[in-house]
Write a structure and sequence with these properties.
The complex is a heterotrimer.
Chain A (H helix, E strand, L loop, with lengths): L1 H21 L3 H21 L3 H26 L12 H27 L27 H9 L3 H26 L1
Chain B lengths: L8 H18 L7 H21 L4 E3 L4 E3 L1 H27 L5 H19 L3 H19 L6 H32 L4 H10 L4 H17 L8 H8 L2 H26 L4 H24 L4 H22 L1 H28 L16 H4 L1 H15 L5 H15 L3 H27 L13 H19 L1 H16 L1
Helix pairs in contact in B: 1-2, 1-4, 2-3, 2-4, 3-4, 3-10, 3-13, 3-18, 3-19, 4-5, 4-10, 5-6, 5-10, 6-7, 6-8, 6-9, 8-10, 9-10, 9-12, 10-12, 10-13, 11-12, 11-17, 12-13, 12-16, 12-17, 13-15, 13-16, 13-18, 13-19, 15-17, 16-17, 16-18
Chain C lengths: L4 H24 L6 H4 L18 H30 L1 H23 L7
Helix pairs in contact in C: 3-4
Classes of the chains: A mainly alpha, B mainly alpha, C mainly alpha.
Amino acid sequence: MELVTFFGVAILAVASALGLVLRRNPIHGALFLVVNLGCVAVLYLLLGAEFLALAQIIIYAGAIMVLFVFAIMVLIPGKEETGPDPLRPQRLLAVPLGAVLLLEAVLVLRSHVVGGGSSRFPGHQPGSPLAAVPPAVRPGGIESVGRLLLGDYLFAFEVTSVLLLAALVGVLTLAKRKAE
Amino acid sequence: MDAALLPLAPLVVVAGTTVVLILLDLLPPRTSKVHLGVVALVGIVATLVSALFLWGRAGRAFSGVVVLDNFALFFDVVICYAVALVLLLSLDYLRRNGMERGEYYILVLFATLGMLLMAHAADLIVIFLALELMSLSLYVLAGFFQARLTAAESAMKYFLLGAFATGFFVYGIALIYGAAGTTALDRVGAALGSATRDPLLLIGLGLLLVGFGFKISSVPFHMWAPDVYEGAPTSVAALIATGSKAAGFAGLLRVLLSTFRGAQPDWTALLWVLAVLTMTVGNVVAIAQSNLKRMLAYSSIAHVGYMLVGVVAGGPLGAGGVLFYLLVYSFATAGAFGVILLLERGRQEAVNQDDYGGLAARHPVLALTLALFLLSLIGMPPTAGFAGKFYLFGAAVRSGYIWLAVIAVLNSAVAAYYYLRVIVYMYMRDQEGVPTEPAPSFAGRLALGIALWGVFQLGLMPAPVLDLAQAAVAPLLR
Amino acid sequence: MSDYVPVLIYAAFIVAFAVMSLGVAALLRPSRSYDAKLQNYECGAEPIGQAWVQFPVGFYLVALVFLLFDLLAVFLFPWALVLRGLGLAAFWAMALFLAILSLGWLYAYREGILEWK
């Protein structure tokens, strides 16, 4: 069951990523990205990272994509990418870089899958199905994230709000020019 | 105050001041914001006092993610001095540029909070948050003078490269967490000591070094510095050159000396190369600069190289020397930027060497002040720069890094050339072009006075402060 | 993972509904197209120009502010799940978090981000 879900979602993720890169209409690209982000969220779920999946959907597929679409609407009205590619040399650079990443992925897979894989994390022994672990101690589960946020990382949690406040003031500062 | 919050007093004071500033900014008057600057200054002075008051105390709070020790307190003092100087310089600089807005002071305090937090952080997550809080505020401040085209370029470059460096930093944290199963610095250190050497930990450390290297602008992560310093408001350039660099060193030293002490041979070799590269590139490229802000940017890169010499030397002498040098460097650099800032003509910057021709005849006091700061940056006795370099290079010799010390001394000699060139322009050239109209206000004069006092106090009587600096690194080296 | 089977079934139903209703309609309906059929139904106005026009920058600002508060919302979920176990301390922790952020909201309001000109 998990394997079927994984391959279904993985194929969809790769296909939507290709769609994002290949479509000339930026709005279509953005919509493909939404699909892609959703697929990645499901992959997170398969790994047992519930909180990450939730954040991925709400923040990335939700807010960031709204931002992307607005940015496209504000900056490039009604234009598809046509004509010669101004970034051709950079794109060619992507081929060797992609090859390096692929090689890296293969190496990691060989060392961990073939070697049996050694998990360093408590509460997540390899081979034990995640469903057997109670949700409160399941790493990545929303409850355990909540416990960490309000426990060991309480201070970091509060600093995050200060960071968000600073970001808000910064955004307003930079945006004011446009208003004036 | 609650006992749990006492170790955080400097942080609490700055955070409280920031909240007050935000509320004050919402109230009238909408046009004049000088009072916000004054309130910010009072808050920073209060922070400085609280840090001095707490000296010698140690503690931890919030499950150990924030720590109070002399090391953090020393950095609190350095950062507070730097920020106070910047605030004093900003008071009338903003008015002259018609950019008197409350957000400036709010963002400066947010950046300060990030810097102080960096000094107090004992967990990689908190270090990351501190880094981001500081950086985000500085990105916006760098582009604060939106009317200037260079400001937009400066902010954009700083933001994009900074975000890139942050990516490396977070990846490093992730790898270290993967290897050690924790983000708490002391437990990472324990994992490094116990387990067989895990390559992931070292790769993670390498990525952290990229992030820190960007913040302190060491070669090869220095590219942003000249453009950002040139385009940013001069007061913000001073803040980036002093405060954010000090914060970067605070995080770097705590991670290297305390957490990754077990891997010292590995990172010492790497830092040896980085130190030489940073010194040499900074000094050699600085020679070619005719824009004073760019020259100071490259000079600040070179000074990072000198401080890395101290990190390589290690021990109480080397690390203590770095802390001492940071204080010395902050006074001299903030002072030099201060003179440049006061000499700007109206809305236009006067930052080329030609603008400084014959300055001594027109404004003898300002010229002398700038000359003294530059002499301190060269490392002439009796200024503080001499004492700082003496301790740093001495520590390198004592730890057996003779060649490193030789290269550093040679570099100092090269550096003398471009600093002295400015002095020659001021004293021996005739004035060319439109004369600058300095507008030294009381606040500006006070800032230069404090910086001068620092340069001479630390130059004539360095021993007491050096003892404090060595006491400050003691808890890390234990 | 079995917790998410209902979600999967739900998602399958959504997709199936869309495919079925459109697909069956396409199969069954007669295909006779003429001009009047393609016009707007009843009172809709005829569109002029393209739908893809340049938006005012104001939208982007609102989106940026939305992003920050969206982030806040994400933190509410884990908090709500463990609140019962951790009690009043957790409540005040979140209260402080929200207080700090509402300062930002106040600021945005005062700066006139929400005013439409």
